[in-house]
Inverse folding.
């Protein structure tokens, strides 16, 4: 009922996750009213991201070339590898400024129900990195979910004996209160309790 | 912290209404993972909508050429003009299949607070259409909001005596129940009550 180009834009926008038909219409009308520069910049940004961004050949993080900025950075500690599920998981870890090693992006987590087997993840590539380089520790930072935990155990099983393996601590988030903590998190916080003497 | 093309795409997406930084990131990652065809289609749709869609020279509805499909349709009743605020308002009216006349899109509603004066709306153009064509009735279908009502009264004042002017009925939505109706709507429903004998 709208002119065809609007209908096409609504259709394309509605393919994005969490964007329903009504939101897509609202966005399409906004783009229609926006100045030409903004619309062109959006179109160009979509094109450019597909054209220029690929995966790092070492760690499979996002990269604007064969290798990502982190793998290219000579100041990073090459004896440490942090294993994450997705490229998006790298950012929050980088923001902490607590970690100065490299990464390895698996590309997902083991989930037999969803048909994700070890072969679907970049686990072979991780093992090859451990064997090849002078890696001393692998920090497994998959999500603290069922699939993330399963992946962590699988990876740990494969690497045991070859390298030190650690897992991110699970417990109460900073700023949380006990009253509203779920029992699984609270249980983890108890199991992982640390001596205050040692601190 | 992401490769530059991703940052640019996130920036452009976050300019869209209702899309915050986190949603923009989620959408950008989706586009990155989507197949090339979908991403190209989205970029092309954005470009095309800006390039090909303009406003109808008669009614200011959206048009893929000098005139919109409705103004070009010889089956429409040219003696009737329905006045709406925005192009998006045309669609729900068309969906009712109750109206077979033409439209006039004002481009907004009078709102002194937001600096929208009669000069900012296509009111002069509406008056010219009434004077020029064989129009017998103007249906004012601005929104039943403060600004929409103000606009309706302004338009009615200008056209009074030249043409019949009607306003869409205000009242209880079909399917609503009295218990949950707000008092303004219920008041309107009373004021606009109709004889069942006449029905």
């Amino acid at each position: 009922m709208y002119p065809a180009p609007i209908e096409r834009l609504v259709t394309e926008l509605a393919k994005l996750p969490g964007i329903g038909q009504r939101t897509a219409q609202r966005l399409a009308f906004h783009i229609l009213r926006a100045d030409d520069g903004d619309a062109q910049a959006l179109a160009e940004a979509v094109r450019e991201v597909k054209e220029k961004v690929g995966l790092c050949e070492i760690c499979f993080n996002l990269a604007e070339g064969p290798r990502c900025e982190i793998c290219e950075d000579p100041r990073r500690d090459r004896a440490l590898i942090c294993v994450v599920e997705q490229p998006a998981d790298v950012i929050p870890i980088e923001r902490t400024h607590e970690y100065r090693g490299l990464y390895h992006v698996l590309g997902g987590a083991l989930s037999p129900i969803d048909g994700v087997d070890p072969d679907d993840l970049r686990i072979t590539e991780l093992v090859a990195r451990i064997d090849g380089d002078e890696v001393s520790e692998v920090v497994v930072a998959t999500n603290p979910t069922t699939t993330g935990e399963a992946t962590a155990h699988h990876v740990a099983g494969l690497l045991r004996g070859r390298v030190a393996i650690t897992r991110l601590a699970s417990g109460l988030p900073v700023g949380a209160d006990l009253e509203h903590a779920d029992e699984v998190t609270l249980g983890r916080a108890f199991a992982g309790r640390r001596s205050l003497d040692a601190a």
User: Anything to note?
Assistant: Chain B has a mean pLDDT of 88.
